[in-house]
Amino acid sequence: MRFRLSQNKTIALLGCLLVIPWELFLIFGFTFSLTGRESLWTWAFILFAFLLNIPAIMLSWFNPKLSAYWLLANMAVSMAIGAGFQLRGYLENPHSTESLTSTLLSLFAQSVATIVFLWFAPAVFAFGTLIVIYAEQHESNRLQSTGLES
After folding, report:
1. Sequence-distant contacts of 96-100: CB under 8 A, at least 24 apart
2. Above 80 in pLDDT, residue 91?
3. E strands along 5-115, which residues?
4. For residue 64, what pLDDT is reported?
5. Do residues 132 and 7 touch, judged by C-beta distance below 8 A?
6. DSSP code of residue 17
């Protein structure tokens, strides 16, 4: 009997070995840098950006499509919360000496760097999972239409 690892299981294994430790590293880094006076929005950001990604990746062993969509929803919610933090920071500092254009460009550059740092690994995992799922469905449909599948 030969052990065969499907593409979905390979991605789930990579997620468990690479993405979960990265998420744990970020969780510990963020929580240990917080003060005692953080708002509930900060904790909501940590929940959606990091903590809820771990069960989503574990779910990929059983239901990879739901797992990928769960990760994408977590990223969307945490990005919206992060954008709210950036906007609030800008509105609370109205006496900035910079022009609006340079401030917006600076916020954009900071946002891109933050997105790459925080969400690159879960995004690659989610999109990789969806690509494999849709490729398998497409191949199955192609084989059914040609009558080659047994």
Report:
1. none
2. no
3. none
4. 92
5. yes
6. I
As a whole number of angstroms, the distance between CA 3 and CA 107 comes to 50
H-type helices in 15-147, by residue range? 20-33, 40-46, 53-59, 64-91, 100-146
Tokens of 9: 């299981």
* pLDDT of residue 37 exceeding 50: yes
| Residues 140, 15, 41: CA angle, nearest 5 degrees | 115
What does the buried/exposed string (b/e) look like for 19-47 if buried means 16 or more CB atoms within 10 Å of the residue's CB? bbeebeebbeebeeeeeeeeeeebeebbb
Start-to-end C-alpha separation, the chain: 21
Q: Determine the angle formed by the axes of helices 100-146 and 20-33, rounding to 10 degrees.
A: 160
